[in-house]
Amino acid sequence: MNHMTISQAAPAAVKILIAGGFGVGKTTMVEAVSEVAPLRTEEYLTKASVGVDDLAGIGDKDTTTVALDFGRITVSDELVVYLFGTPGQERFWFMWNDLVNGALGGVVIADTRRLGTSFASIDFFESRDIPFVVAINCFHGHNTRTAEEIRVALDLDPHVPLLIGDVRRREFGKDVLLALVDHLMSLPAAV
């Protein structure tokens, strides 16, 4: 007689959306923190994007996310975090509505050289009452603004966590995700 063992229940899944403007480091953050090789939908920029994609401040960028980035972090046998990075260009924003379904929270990545590219992501999360944190990506240590100046420029509510660092560093990415978890836990429970 075969004895079947009871299999463990599947771990709980938590979905986090990583958003921000074109070229701010969303793909880079997903790559930095994912425990598996992330799914990327990067394509080379072509002449067709001239006049459509604003390369101001990111002139050496030659690829772009056209659908999503996907990564995974196993917290324990009971909990897995799935990261979904959004495409940054306005022409792909229609996808955000599908990507956000089921998301527990979000991360807005911003670049102080181009803070205006962050407004759409912040508005997106605020309009859907989705808690989020803001991660300022300091490209090569470049940051000319204080946290307070950034907070005022982005018109952030005082309760929204703001972190400054380099998303290429795994430790900074983990700090951002932990700040989001802390932020989620500090919010009043939904009735």
UniProtKB/TrEMBL annotation:
Keywords: GTP-binding, Hydrolase, Nucleotide-binding. It comes from the Bacteria. The keyword tRNA processing does not apply. SUPFAM superfamilies: P-loop containing nucleoside triphosphate hydrolases (SSF52540). GO terms for molecular function: GTP binding; hydrolase activity. Belongs to the GPN-loop GTPase family. This is ATP/GTP-binding protein. It comes from Streptomyces pristinaespiralis (strain ATCC 25486 / DSM 40338 / CBS 914.69 / JCM 4507 / KCC S-0507 / NBRC 13074 / NRRL 2958 / 5647).
